Amino acid sequence: MAVYSEAELYSDHDFASLHEVHGQRMHGGFDASGAYQSPRAKGRGEAIAAWTAELRERGGELFEAHASLLAGPRMPSVEQQCLLLAEGLGTPFWNSLTITGKIEGRGRVLAEMQFPDLQDIIVEDISGMAIGHLNKGLLAIHGLDEGGEPDKGIGGHDVMWFVARDLVFGKDAYPDVEPPESISRPEAGRRWMEEVEPQYEGLMSFLMNLLMIEFRAEIGFAATQDILRNPELFTDRRDAAEEAAEIVERIRTDEEIHVESLRLYLGELRELTIKTVAGETVKGSELIDRFWSGMVQWATQEQPQIAAANAYDSLKPAIEAHDNGDALLARFDALTEPATDAVSAG
Predict the structure, then answer these.
(1) In 3-state terms, what secondary structure has residue 323?
(2) Mapping DSSP to helix (H, G, I), strand (E, B) and coil, where does residue 136 land?
(3) Dihedral in degrees, nearest 10, Cα atoms 178, 179, 181, 183
(4) Is the separation of the CB atoms in 241 and 249 below 8 Å?
(5) Rounded distance, CA 126 to CA 118, Å?
């Protein structure tokens, strides 16, 4: 049973230098070779490795889910975004970087919330498991990664996105923009795990929603790097664009531990025995797999169509208002990625 203190989970590697870009302090740092090192990754990384090994010794495995689940057409695609930038329409890409940064910043709420104790509904002792440490630093650290420590002047992923944006566009190049209220699946009050009280269902569903958001982010971050690294774009700021792409790479490095930890939490939950409100028990896999199956249905079939239609409707007026807008819209439409078959939930 691997039990870790909050201090151990928060511990950093020994940075040879801090992470700063143009005077802006951001989390993490660099080792003596100049390689980026994520914040609060020393003890946390050791703990996740230990918990993963113990899960496998018990016959379990990390939750089987990967970002490839969401591989499919995007609106706008990388090619479409590059076309708009080449034609002087920078607002869509500016908005994308701004919204991503603000959504990342919302994640800081994890550092301020107290979640229900899953031990209350789990038969086995979880004190030496990852899910036994959710309120002992793990989720709070995740939140600090996303939203930084503004009281200390240290930026997290939110600030890193804004710095990357300003490197390629310049500060305040376009009007500010706000993200949608929610990017997770709208549940509309539906219960998927009625065997347990709502607060425990809420935590387990939150972890799965968070994992799906991380997968969507991974695909979007890779697309952003492709755009930033296009040598035909930002020609007057090529070095800045390459630096911005590198900042995104550092964010992606940080996110790897988020995905791994979420897969670990869900892998542990699947192997455990859950107490029901009826005084009986149910295998965790029955609850987790049921909710995840419904989420995959939404994320691969329902949400992409809605998101693509909304994105197109917001882009079309700006394209049509551009010089020779009809011709530009035709070129944009010709680059639309074809729809693909939905990924099976099984």
Answers:
(1) coil
(2) helix
(3) 180
(4) no
(5) 8
pLDDT of 186-233, one tens digit each?
Answer: 555 678 899 999 999 999 999 999 999 999 899 999 999 999 999 999
**Does residue 92 carry a pLDDT above 50?**
yes
Q: How far, CA to CA in Å, does 58 sit from each of 61, 127, 272, 276?
A: 9, 15, 11, 23
Provide the b/e sequence for 237-266 (b: ≥16 CB within 10 Å). eeebbebbbbbbebbeebbebbbebbbbbb
17, β-bridge pairs: 30
Q: Position of tokens 């590697």?
A: 13
The torsion angles phi and psi of 36, rounded to 5 degrees, stand at -70, 140
Distances (CA, A) of 98 to 70, 91, 130, 312: 22, 10, 33, 18
What is the reported pLDDT for 346? 35
Distance CA(144)–CA(94), nearest Å, equals 24
CA triple 231-235-238, angle to 5 deg: 70
∠ CA 6-216-289, rounded to 5°: 75
Asked if 273 contacts 286 with a C-beta cutoff of 8 angstroms, the reply is: no
